[in-house]
Amino acid sequence: MKGSIFSLLLFFGFILAGCNPESSVSEPAGSDKLLNQTENGDITLGKFAPETLRELAAARAGTARYHNIANAIADGYVDINVVVPGMGVHYLKPDNLNATFEAGLPELLVYQPTEDGGFRLVAVEYAVPVALSPNAPAGFTGNDDVWGVFAGAPGPEDDLWTLHAWVWFNNPAGMFNPINPLLLP
Quick check: is 11 in a domain? Predict the structure, then answer.
């Protein structure tokens, strides 16, 4: 029993270390903007509550394997042909689209095309059909995340509440701001 509790504490300590502004955690190749760096103007996570930090860590842990876009495609994420300046290329996992917010299981992955023809994972995006939740869903702990409505096609039944979290690339406009000025053309 004591061994399993220690293992659990060690695991959570490892996950939380990825969100500690003073820690140095290396990321997979292609993610040169670390969430926890501050010396180069990257975001500081100190303003978030401990629960929000745990949720952001869960978002990173749940999507780390998707730095390789082939893993995302193999797991059911599909290119939905939504490319937005200041965001990137959106891949949706239809099986995740429901009324439930789960930090580690985002409905969308957001990629930035790279100069060599590849893709860099920059953000996750959560989506809840308006038809399933007429009011903005509860998301991350606290009041920092603000959901917006994306008007889908072909009709209003396809409208989605959406929320970005820039867990893999710095967004000076804010962790949950949908537009990242560093990615504008």
Answer: no
Q: Across-strand partners of 165? A: 124
Helical (H) or strand (E) element with 74: helix 69-74
Q: What is the pLDDT of residues 79-112, one digit of tens each?
A: 999 999 999 999 999 999 999 999 999 999 999 9
Q: Which domain holds residue 72?
A: 48-183
Work out how many domains the chain is built from and give that number. Answer: 1
| 44 CB-near residues (< 8 Å, 6+ apart) | 21, 38
Tokens (6 digits) for 123: 């953000």
How many CA atoms within 13 Å lie on the side-chain side of 145?
26
Q: Among candidates 141, 133, 156, 171, which has minimal Cα distance to 58?
A: 141
Confirm whether 76 is domain-assigned.
yes
pLDDT digits (tens, 9 = 90+) for 17-38: 333 332 223 333 333 333 443 3
Residue 7 lies in a domain: no
Does some domain include residue 68?
A: yes
pTM confidence score: 0.76
